[in-house]
C-alpha cells in the first residue's frame, strides 16, 4: 500500500523559503543531507550534547540533531543564513576572538541571538545559555565577552544573505593566497593553515564534509570495524549496524604504576580525550587528492594520524565515484589518539623517573625540557597515543620541574623559546603572561591562550576517559570527557607581551604554566584529574 504523500514528506519554511524533505531522520539530517545547509554542524553524531547543530524553530533555539524532522512540519526554521544581524554577530565574535576553528560557533550564535537584551548583557546568563554547548577552542571567556559586548542596531538590520556553506561540487581552491597576520598567528597556534574572519564564525571555514559533492557515496565504520559504503548517510548508517555509544559509570583508571623511589613529587595521569568538536571527515574523487581532515583547525594535534583521507582515496578509486568518509563521535573516542598517560617521581634536584605509555617520539619530547629525567616506555593496553597532541611529553615534564619551585606564580619556557607564567588566586581566577615573538594579532593570540588555560584547568582537575582492562574506552559521549562548562570556568586574564624575533606558538607554553599553577593551588595531589 502506498504511503500518503503527507506522511512521506515534511513541508516547512527555511529562512523564508518553503521546502519539502523526506519524513525520516532528524532535522539536522534534513538540513545537511537534503537541503545542503552546512552551517548546522554534526559534532556529537548525534547525542544532543555539543550544541553545534542549534537552529531556531519558530524563533526558539533547538538542537536539531535530536529533533525529528517531522516536528518541523508547518513550522519556521531559521539557520545563520537567515538570522537577522548575522553579519554583526559574526563580526563581534571575530573582533573578540570568540571563534577559532568556527565549528561550534554558528550554533552558539543561534543560541545567544535568541536571548533577550538583559540576558545578553549578563555574563552569568550567557554562561547558563552555554550549558547546551561545548566549545573546545576558546575557553568560553571570549564568547562571553562577545555576547555581552554585542550591540544590535536600532531598528534591527534586515536579514543579510550569508555566504552559503552548502555542499560544493569542487574541492576547495588550491590557489595560494597570502595569509593575513590574523591567519598567520592562528596557523602558528593551531598547527595548520587556518582562515580567520566573520565567515568562519558563520560556519564557512571550509570543513571537509561541508565541501563534499552532493552525489558522493558515504562511508562510515561498521560494527565490525570495516568501512561500509552507502548511497546516502542514512543508508550507510543502516548498513553499519552500529548503536550509538553512551556514557559509562565506570571509574577512571591510572594505567601506569609509579616508579619505586624516594620522591618529593609524584604524578600519575590517565587517558585524556582531545575533545575536538569536528569528528574526523574527508572526501575524495577518483584518482585525486583527498580533502584534508584538518579543514580549519589543527584539532590540538588529534587528527595528525587520522586514516580518513587515505580511506577516502582508496574507496573513491574502488567505486569510481566521489566518496565522503565520516567518523562518529564514538569512532573518534575509540580510535583517536590520546595523550600518553604517565607515572613520574621527582627528587628535589630535578632528577627522577618517568614511566610513560610507549609512544613514538615521547622520549625526545620529555628530554627537550628535562634531560635529567630517566624515561621508561611501558606497554599499556589502551587507545593509541601520540606526541602530536598539544605539548604531549614536554608539557608534563615542564610542569613537574615547575612544581619544585616556589609559587604562586609558575614560569615555563617551551622548546620553541616561548615563555609563559601563570598564577591562580584565592578565588580560582587564572592570570597568565606570554611572550612568543611578534604578536601579529592580539585578539587571535589572546583567544588561543585563554583556550589553552581552560584546557589546562580541565586537564588537571576534571578531564579523563574511562578505559577498561582490555584497553577499550567506555566514555563515548562528548559530555563524558570532563571538559569544563562555561559556568564552571573562572575568570581568565591573559597579558600578551610583544616579543623580539619571529612569532612562535605561545598557547602551549600557557597551557604548561597554567597546569602548574592549578596543580599548586590543589596542593600537589599525586593523580590527575584531581577532582575525579
What does this protein structure show overall?
The chain folds into three domains: 1-158, Ubiquitin-like (UB roll) (Roll), CATH 3.10.20.30; 206-244 and 280-327, no CATH class; 342-522, Aldehyde Oxidoreductase, domain 4. The longest helix is centred in the C-terminal third of the chain and has 20 residues, at 442-461. 55% of the residues are buried. Residues 1-5 and 160-176 have low confidence and may be disordered. Helix 8 runs parallel beside helix 15. It has 16 helices and 17 strands. With 532 residues, the chain is of the alpha+beta class.
Element layout with pairings:
Blueprint: H1 5-8, E1 9-14, E2 17-22, H2 27-34, E3 54-57, E4 60-63, E5 76-78, H3 86-95, H4 105-113, H5 117-120, H6 123-129, H7 141-149, H8 181-190, H9 198-201, E6 217-221, E7 227-230, H10 233-240, E8 265-268, E9 281-284, H11 308-319, E10 323-326, H12 329-335, E11 342-346, E12 352-357, H13 362-367, E13 373-378, H14 394-402, E14 410-413, E15 419-424, E16 430-435, H15 442-461, E17 492-497, H16 507-522
Parallel strand pairs: 1-5, 6-10, 12-13, 16-17
Antiparallel strand pairs: 1-2, 3-4, 3-5, 6-7, 8-11, 9-10, 11-12, 14-15, 15-16
Helix pairs in contact: 3-7, 8-15, 14-16, 15-16
Condensed summary:
This protein folds into 3 domains: 1-158, Beta-grasp domain (Ubiquitin-like (UB roll), Roll); 206-244 and 280-327, no CATH class; 342-522, 2-Layer Sandwich (Aldehyde Oxidoreductase, domain 4), CATH 3.30.365.
Amino acid at each position: 500500500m502506498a504511503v500518503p504523500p503527507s506522511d512521506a514528506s515534511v513541508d516547512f519554511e527555511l529562512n523564508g523559503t518553503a521546502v519539502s524533505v523526506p519524513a525520516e531522520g532528524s532535522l539536522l539530517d534534513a538540513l545537511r543531507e537534503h537541503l545542503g545547509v552546512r552551517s548546522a554542524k554534526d559534532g556529537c553524531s548525534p547525542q544532543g550534547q555539543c550544541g553545534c547543530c542549534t537552529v531556531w524553530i519558530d524563533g526558539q533555539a533547538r538542537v536539531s540533531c535530536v529533533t525529528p524532522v517531522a516536528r518541523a512540519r508547518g513550522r519556521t526554521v531559521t539557520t545563520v543564513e537567515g538570522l537577522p544581524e548575522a553579519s554583526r554577530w559574526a563580526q563581534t565574535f571575530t573582533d573578540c576572538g570568540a571563534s577559532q576553528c568556527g565549528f561550534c560557533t554558528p550554533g552558539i550564535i543561534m543560541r545567544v541571538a535568541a536571548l533577550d537584551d538583559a540576558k545578553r548583557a549578563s555574563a552569568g546568563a550567557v554562561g547558563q545559555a552555554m550549558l547546551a554547548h561545548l566549545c573546545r577552542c576558546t575557553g568560553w571567556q571570549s564568547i562571553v565577552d562577545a555576547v555581552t559586548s554585542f550591540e544590535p542596531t536600532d531598528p534591527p538590520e534586515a536579514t543579510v544573505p550569508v555566504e552559503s556553506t552548502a555542499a560544493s561540487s569542487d574541492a576547495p581552491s588550491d590557489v595560494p593566497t597570502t595569509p593575513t597576520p590574523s591567519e598567520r598567528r592562528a596557523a602558528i597556534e593551531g598547527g595548520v593553515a587556518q582562515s580567520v574572519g566573520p565567515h568562519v564564525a558563520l560556519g564557512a571555514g571550509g570543513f571537509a564534509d561541508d565541501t563534499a559533492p552532493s552525489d558522493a557515496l558515504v562511508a562510515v565504520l561498521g560494527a565490525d570495524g570495516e568501512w561500509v559504503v552507502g548511497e546516502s548517510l542514512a543508508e550507510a548508517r543502516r548498513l553499519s549496524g552500529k548503536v550509538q555509544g553512551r556514557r559509562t559509570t565506570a571509574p577512571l583508571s591510572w594505567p601506569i604504576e609509579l616508579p619505586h623511589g624516594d620522591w618529593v613529587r609524584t604524578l600519575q595521569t590517565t587517558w585524556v580525550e582531545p575533545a575536538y568538536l569536528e569528528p574526523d571527515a574527508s572526501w575524495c574523487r577518483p584518482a585525486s587528492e583527498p580533502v584534508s581532515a584538518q579543514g580549519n583547525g589543527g584539532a590540538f594535534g588529534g587528527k595528525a594520524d587520522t586514516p580518513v583521507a587515505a580511506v577516502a582515496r582508496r574507496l573513491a578509486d574502488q567505486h569510481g565515484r566521489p566518496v565522503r568518509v565520516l567518523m562518529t563521535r564514538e569512532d573518534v573516542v575509540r580510535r583517536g589518539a590520546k595523550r600518553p598517560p604517565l607515572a613520574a617521581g621527582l627528587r628535589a634536584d630535578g632528577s627522577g623517573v618517568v614511566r610513560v605509555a610507549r609512544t613514538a617520539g615521547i622520549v625526545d619530547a620529555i628530554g627537550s625540557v628535562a634531560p635529567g629525567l630517566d624515561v621508561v616506555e611501558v606497554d599499556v593496553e589502551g587507545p593509541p597515543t601520540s606526541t602530536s597532541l598539544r605539548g604531549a611529553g614536554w608539557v608534563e615534564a615542564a610542569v613537574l620541574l615547575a612544581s619544585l619551585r616556589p609559587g604562586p606564580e609558575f614560569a615555563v619556557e617551551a622548546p620553541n623559546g616561548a615563555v609563559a607564567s601563570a598564577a591562580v588566586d584565592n578565588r580560582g581566577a587564572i592570570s597568565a603572561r606570554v611572550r612568543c615573538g611578534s604578536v601579529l594579532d592580539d585578539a587571535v593570540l589572546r583567544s588561543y591562550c585563554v583556550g589553552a588555560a581552560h584546557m589546562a584547568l580541565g586537564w588537571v582537575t576534571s578531564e579523563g576517559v574511562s578505559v577498561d582492562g582490555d584497553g577499550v574506552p567506555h566514555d563515548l559521549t562528548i559530555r563524558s570527557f570532563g571538559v569544563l562548562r562555561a559556568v564552571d570556568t573562572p575568570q581568565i586574564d591573559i597579558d600578551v607581551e610583544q616579543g623580539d624575533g619571529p612569532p612562535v606558538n605561545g598557547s602551549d607554553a600557557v597551557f604548561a604554566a597554567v597546569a602548574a599553577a592549578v596543580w599548586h593551588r590543589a596542593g600537589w595531589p599525586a593523580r590527575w584529574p584531581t577532582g575525579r
